[in-house]
Amino acid sequence: MNIYRYEENPLITPADVAPHRPDFEVLGAFNAGVAEYQGETLLLLRVAEKPISEDPNIVKAPVFNVETQQLDILEFRLDDPTYDFEDPRMIRTRDKMEGFAYLTSLSYIRIARSKDGHNFTVDEKPFLYPFNEYQTFGIEDARVTQIGDVYYVNFSAVSEMGVADAMISTKDFVSYEYEGNIFAPENKDVLIFPEKVNGKYYALHRPSLKSIGNLDIWIASSPDLHSWGDHRHLLGIRDGYWDSGRIGGGAVPIKTEKGWLELYHGATKEHRYCMGAVLLDLNDPMKVLARTETPILEPEADYEKNGFFGDVVFGCGTIVEGDVVKMYYGVADTSMACCEMSLAEILQQLEDESR
Ligand code: MAN
């Protein structure tokens, strides 16, 4: 696979984003949803910010308080034996059975806009900031599906109740309507197909199983984008492969002559995230036609290997122009990058590796 990584990569880094309040610092601007709106490329960035701690022995956790509509900043002492601070993204109790966890940063969605797809300007204000009890720990990893002149933006809504998938709709990327939670916890990586197939909407989703089963991709259909049913297992992890630990939908499915092309992410058990491709039947997206054996994109560049959480390429959206697939992708849970690939080459790899 020939990958053309933009020379300007990383396109957006935390340094390009001013924190939304002075006592916070920006850790990441990554895993953005992608939209084309009025001749511009919009990236719906996941901005992760952390409360600044003056005391190195104190870790803080920001939590949105629904009553006051403000953030509460909780403090934990690093030497407190009750807690486990090993994962920099979380604070857990050592007694895992309690299921207690806080996040060390708050994510929300901010828009970056560009006329040429290379140079972006980040909006001053958040576009989506926590607003209800399902989002008290933040809003993460948006995906944008355009249907007619309406853009549906779905995202992970994180709270102590778990990670649900919520949706808003917008026509102008300024105001929006809340459409509610569309998948119950724990579920991530929801991708809504850009058009109905045989009279039904389709979505990929990834239940994050905790007792039995693997972190696999499922598919569901809906008459109205709100009620999702007919859930089926679509794609599983593969032992010994680059996608042996977990998989999840990445970019909004692309309609091609050969079928629906889904660029999905897969990680090893050691959390190395790559992107692969799968082809679904045009008339029945619940049918898998082909799947790549090898990744189409893997962390190789320095900005993909090193960062807040290294060895991660995580694509949430593409722009397709003829044979060119521009994939905008999060790198190392820190920044945004873009690469171009040939659609024909991806389809060829799918054909070659599925024989
Ligand atoms: C994982 C990571 C984090 C994220 C939480 C909650 O630990 O993806 O970045 O904040 O899940 O979704």
UniProtKB/TrEMBL annotation:
One of its GO terms (molecular function) is glycosyltransferase activity. SUPFAM superfamilies: Arabinanase/levansucrase/invertase (SSF75005). The keyword Glycosyltransferase applies. Belongs to the glycosyl hydrolase 130 family. The keyword Glycosyltransferase applies. PANTHER family: GLYCOSIDASE (PTHR34106). Keywords: Glycosyltransferase, Transferase. This is Glycosidase. It holds the Pfam family Glyco_hydro_130.
